[in-house]
Each structure stands twice: as C-alpha cells, then as structure tokens.
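Incident log, support desk, overnight shift.

02:14 A customer reports that sequence design results differ from what the structure should imply. Their input is reproduced verbatim below. On-call engineer (initials T.W.) acknowledged and began investigating.
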C-alpha cells in the first residue's frame, strides 16, 4: 500500500504541475472581499486527484484489487464534471443540487447497509429514511465544499479521514490511491497555496466520503466513521442554521465559518489547517484504537473546543 500511495502522490503532483499553467490562464481566482487569499490563484486543481484516483482505481479494479472504491469513484465522477463546469460557468444551484441528488441515490443503491435493510421495514418508513439519507449525503457534499476556503484545510483533513476509513474497513488499494493522489495535491495546496481544488475537487471528495461511510458493515460503524470528520462537518453544520435563522442566503459566499473567523482573528492558513487536522487525527486514532463510543466522546470534546473558539477567540 505504501508503494501505491507514493506512486499515486507522484502522479498527482506531476499532473498538477502540468495543469497549473493551464488553470492559471482559464480558472484564475481573483481575491475579493470574502477571500482569504491576497494573490490571484488558479482553482480547479482538484481535477488532478480526480483523474489519478479514477485512473488508478480503474486499473486496480481491472486486476481485481480495487475493492468497492472504484465503484464509489465512478458514482462521483459526474459530480466532479459538474463541479468543473461550475468553476468555469457558475452553474445554477438547481443544476448542481440535481446532480448531487442523483449521486446520493447511486451511493445509497450500492450501500450494503441499505441492501440488507430494505426488506425489513414498512414502505412509508423506508421512503422517509431514504429521503433523510439523500438529504444527509447532499449535506456532506455541500459542507465539504463550503469548508474549502483555506490553504490545505479540506485536503489534509480528508486525507486523514480516508486513511482512517481504509484501515477501519480494511479496504483494498482503490481507496489508498485516492489518499496518495490527495497527498500529491496537498504539496501544491498547502500554505501558501499554488492552486485551489475548486468545486471539481471538493464536491468529489464529499461524495466519496459519504459513499465510504455508507459502505460500513453496521450503522454504528457508519456513525463512528462520519464523526471522524467532525472538525469539518460540525463547522458547516453550525454555520448553516445560524445564517438561516439570521435571514441570510445559505448558499451565498460569506466569511462566517469558524475557520474563516479564526483566520480573521490573526491565525495563519497553516495554523487553522493544523488545528482542524489535529482534531481529525485524534478522532481517527480514537476510532481505530477504540470504538464508535470512543470516537463519539472525542467528537463531543472537539465540538466543545470549537464552541469555545467560536465564542472566545474567533472574530
């Protein structure tokens, strides 16, 4: 697996080195009042780890070593394509959410949790739970996208999350290829970032993570895995209803997430990313060394630390 990770990281790094001049000409992100960066920076760099992960997992599947990861990546590819178009054309939210719903439905259809659960419940309850999970999966996709606002933040946390899932679920090389491709991207994305992942990368990662969680053998395992990403998802989960209650447009760009307000309080990109990364690492280790109950306790502690930072430190 180490060879797989290193090779995927090199391929992603090399591909991005070739893509950055093109992205600089076509997808240059100019700073505005809501930006956390000061220099024009190309976005859409997530295309590199999408290509490497798709090609690598496809090869692994061809040789019978990809596990279920290639199927998840295939389900998320249309969402990545729409994300790339959105980076260029600013598509309407209706188009974006429609593709997210289709992706969520595909991920549910290949989930062993739902395959084993369908025959055992009344139809009405089944429909209600399916709707709930469709909303949950699309929320994970959008929350991951919302959190992609500082150098290295989403890429580093999701790398740890996928490593944890690979070890916890004993997944074959397919998911490790994604880990390696993210590491190669992170070399360009860490502060000061030379490239941003854009919607093509963030929505893809959110969909893959939701799909990985749904591949858990039990609902408790799924809950424990989902909690590994508490630093990312809880930030968005708190910010969205707060803005909704304040009468603001939830899907409009803003600077009100905790990670953004910590940056406004004087923290550097690297300091904020390392804080979220440390929380994700502790949660991952708690799940691997303990159980879902252990990760639940640690997630509660991480959540309370976030509340304290929200009230005492952040702007």
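02:41 Re-run completed on a clean worker. Output:
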């Amino acid at each position: 697996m180490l060879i797989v990770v290193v090779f995927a990281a090199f391929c992603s790094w090399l591909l991005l080195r070739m893509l950055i001049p093109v992205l600089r000409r076509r997808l240059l992100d100019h700073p505005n009042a809501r930006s956390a960066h000061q220099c024009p920076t190309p976005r859409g760099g997530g295309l590199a780890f999408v290509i490497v992960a798709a090609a690598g997992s496809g090869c692994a599947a061809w040789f019978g070593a990809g596990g279920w990861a290639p199927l998840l990546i295939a389900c998320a590819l249309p969402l990545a394509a729409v994300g790339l178009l959105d980076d260029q054309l600013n598509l309407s939210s209706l188009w974006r959410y429609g593709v997210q719903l289709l992706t969520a439905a595909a991920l549910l259809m290949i989930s062993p949790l739902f395959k084993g659960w369908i025959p055992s419940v009344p139809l009405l309850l089944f429909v209600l739970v399916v709707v709930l999970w469709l909303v949950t999966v699309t929320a994970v996709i959008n929350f991951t996208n919302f959190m992609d606002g500082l150098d290295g933040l989403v890429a580093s946390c999701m790398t740890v999350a996928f490593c944890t899932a690979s070890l916890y679920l004993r997944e074959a090389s397919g998911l490790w290829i994604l880990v390696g491709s993210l590491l190669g991207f992170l070399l360009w994305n860490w502060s000061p970032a030379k490239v941003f992942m854009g919607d093509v990368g963030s929505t893809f990662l959110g969909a893959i993570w939701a799909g990985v969680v749904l591949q858990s053998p039990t609902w408790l395992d799924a809950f424990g895995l989902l909690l590994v990403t508490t630093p990312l998802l809880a930030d968005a989960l708190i910010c969205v209803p707060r803005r909704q209650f304040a009468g603001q447009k939830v899907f409009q760009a803003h600077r009100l997430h905790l990670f953004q307000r910590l940056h406004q309080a004087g923290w550097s990109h690297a300091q904020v990313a390392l804080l979220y990364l440390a929380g994700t690492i502790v949660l991952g280790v708690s799940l691997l060394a303990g159980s879902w109950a252990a990760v639940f306790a640690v997630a509660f502690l991480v959540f309370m630390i976030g509340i304290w930072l929200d009230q005492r430190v952040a702007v």
